Fold each of these.
Amino acid sequence: MKRWAKNNIEAFELANKYIPGGVSSPVRSFYQVGGVPFFVSRAKSSKIYDIEGKEYIDYVMSWGALILGHSNSDVISAVKEQIYYGTTYGAPTEIEYILAKTISECIPSMEMIRFVNSGTEACMSAVRLARAFTGKSKVIKFEGCYHGHADYFLVSAGSGVANLQVPSSRGVTENLIKDTIVLPFNDVEKFLNTVETEDGISCIIVEPIPANMGVVIPKKGFLETLQRVCKEKNILLIFDEVITGFRFGLCGVQDIIGIKPDITCLGKIIGGGFPLACFGGRRDIMKLLAPLGEVYQAGTLSGNPIAVVAGIKTLELLKKLDYRYLESISVDLVEGIRDILSKKFKNSNTKVVINRFRSLFSVFFSQGESVENFSDVRNSDKGLFSKFFHHLLKNGVFIPPSVFETFFISFSHTRKDIQKTLDVVLSLDF
Ligand code: PLP
């Protein structure tokens, strides 16, 4: 491929001329950790390469989309074959049925499924559906959870939104967010008070394991309380499993923790590295969607055959893999980092807190002993995190460039990658 820039700095300067911030999605710009982002030339398995030829062990993995690693050869072959037959039709295909059936068999609460192109669309459409089904308008969401960039989700949201200096995005009017109720994650009392005093709540949308304020672990009983109250008060429970779906097994996290939401949103892994997402749930709710019902939702490229084929192949390959491997290398990495950093911070007021749920984890340099909600994450030391990030980057390890994100491990990561990462952490001088 023709190169336009001689290095990352020049590529960033050129990109900034035509693309705001030089990036197609804000967090890629390193604006929280500072510095110039590297520009990618190629990637394979657990490695990503920049245009200067430098290799990095990749723990971003396209923000969780690549559970098999970069450029999986079986997925590529399936995609190549599909491209030969056509790239988009604007008419239904059998492969959409195959993928919908596979997802529904793995996550039984998703009795019917609608494919879309992004997690944003999935969450936005799920809420529209919930409002239509219940005839109510208010939505409860939790601080630090991210459900894409539909207007009414951008209040106290996690991920890149958390880096803004305003509580929601500019351009989102008061009117657009008047029906959004934002509550602190893990605060059962506040939640119960709210549902007692507020009428007209259509749905609660939540990341069951939040991963967009870094990873935060739900306290025992928190998600169960949401489920109980939803049943009692005719409120729909929406699980945003865009990150957690198929991350811990051939299922959603709902199947692991034993909570059945009314609607589930998926994205990332189900597209095998291509733009695909979906929402699905109870048949009686899903039947409200056009053309069966009067909730409108549509998309020119929805159910795109290339993305669907990549998704089918990815799930087929995942069926043959042992998810205990992902957890095992995550434990090795987490415990290794914890051990090294705790020693380095032994005489400091800063505590090294690592939250982990199976293969999903984040590292915080915290003021307190634990990180349980958005405000704990906000109060963590971002300067130390930046130092940690840049040391790893300089030494060939790419982790998410923000404290509000999570590490992503893939089946292509090897024990050698883990050891090399730990060696780099060990060489860090705080
Ligand atoms: N929901 C969650 C939990 C996410 O992590 C994301 C994106 O990271 C989204 C929704 C939005 O998905 P997309 O970026 O595909 O619009």
Amino acid sequence: MAAQEIKVPDIGDFDSVEVIEVLVSEGDTVEEEQALITLESDKATLEVPTTIAGKLTELKVKEGDTVSEGDVIAMVEADAGEDSASDDDSDDDADEGEESDDGSESDDEADESGDDESAAADDAPEEDDAEDDAAGGETIEVKVPDIGDFDSVEVIEVLVSEGDEVEAEQALITLESDKATLEVPSESAGKITELKVKEGDTVSEGDVIAMLESAGSKKSSGGDKKQSADQKKSGGDDRAQKADKKSDNKADESKDKKPKKDDKSSSEKQPKKKSVKSGSGEEGDSSKLKSVDEDRFNKAHASPSVRKYARHLGADLGRIQGSGRKGRILEDDVQAYVKKALEQSQGGASAGAPAGAGGVPAQPDIDFSQFGEVEIVELARIRKISAKAVHKNWLLIPHVTQFDTADITEMEAFRKANKEKAAKDGVKLTPLAFMLKAAAAALREFPDLNSSLTADSASLVHKKYCNIAIAVDTPGGLMMPVLKDVDQKGIYQLARELDEISGRARDGKLKGDEMKGACFSISSLGGVGGTAFTPIVNSPEVGILGVSKHSMQPVWNGTEFEPRLILPLSFSYDHRVIDGAKAARITGFISEKLSDLRTLLL
Ligand code: CAO
């Protein structure tokens, strides 16, 4: 199917308008009415959509170009059987695809708009402005400017309230037809004393949308100016020629239109009530989130569609840094902003946090290169995952760490005595196997230690099984494989399983379910060093035992100092479940089990 031209529709009294954003690329598949480019004049921002769905084969404009009505902006190869655009339009438009060459898609409907009036309006000589200028304090009508071949266009957003102070050119309302979305700005700085329209109303050129108590002189162009120019019927410049170029019947229509317009302005027009269309439902209710600063939002530099998109997502445009030309906020900027906000709330900051905990400030984005040479190294995948987990647990759980020691002189003597023999059986007998056994005994002795809080934090789930996770230092980051049914296994078997599963963790060969279902965790830094640390509890567990490097220390036995092998213990717990006294009893219990292996057998 041959590509069809997509032209700039009748854009009212704008001529040579700048393309500030090209929203598509060649090769893109576009949907009917999808915006292709954004135009911005000193009067309004508006998007030009495609009239047909299909593949965009050629872009005829780029950012910075200027265009006028009828200019071809793109070529679109219609989808097979594409005629829905015309189906949706009036019967007159039924064959708009074929007629696109002469811009009839616009013209057919423009017949109703009588926009040659506005062409004349735009021709108003500069000195007319002086007459129209409102002196400070004077109340003026803000009217819908010449909006081209749009008539009875829906107000999809009212951006200001009565009593608001507005700046010249600040957008007051957003209009949306099936052809484009555009904003109507205030032509003068001042105070909005009355709003004449609300969301869902429909308006046409010349309709009064607000009363403005002017703060000073009016801007060079706008509805008033056009209106006055309409009345003077001045003409003769490009714009008028353009209007002349348009079909004759438009002029006829304009005659019909004029009284209609006058009627409206003279008779306190009651805007037609019309429900906000479903596609813009969110905008219809304004979605004015408390976190959005409306004033800042409205003043932000963004196209109507981006504004609408941000509203839809509840993103405060006023907080978003625009990456477009002249700091214009693009849809990508809104997306990036929302993504970051979600990451902060879901990934770490407040996800699962108790009510009222709130978020945490974002990681500051600092340019460290200003202080010296730097290199950016991306975190390994596992480190990224565990970083989120520890952050969440750190925020979720009120941690306390109880420190204690265990005299493992006998335990180590026993282990060393059996180490070689165990090695012959293929077992690497390390202190950790004994600690697993002592922890299992503690889980049995203290049911709350082997529990989890229910989601409503009102009950404890006591577990009758005994699975313990072990922190394993791997090249990719920290992993927590789980040893199952530790209470039912002997020290040899535990040592064998520990060696096997920690080896697979280091090789990155753990399966997902081998890291699930733990009741408690042990983090041993004994083979590395240190005297104490504060491990982070892995929610929904309620405790974790940290083990540091043992050392020979002089211990007073009542008559003399005796060299004993002392193991430092650091027990972190969830203070919502375990209180300090119980924590001290738990560490004391574990210490006792490790100090006298015989008690482990009981
Ligand atoms: N004090 C002194 N020496 C200790 C010790 C302790 N508490 N615990 C273990 N050792 C010794 C072992 O006895 C072994 O020496 P021998 O071969 O002479 O017996 C040596 O240290 C190395 O042991 P290992 O590390 O191979 O085995 P392990 O069972 O002690 O630990 C594992 C296994 C997987 C826990 C360990 O390799 C590991 O990855 N530890 C790091 C865990 C970690 O990063 N924790 C921090 C997480 S953040 O909270």
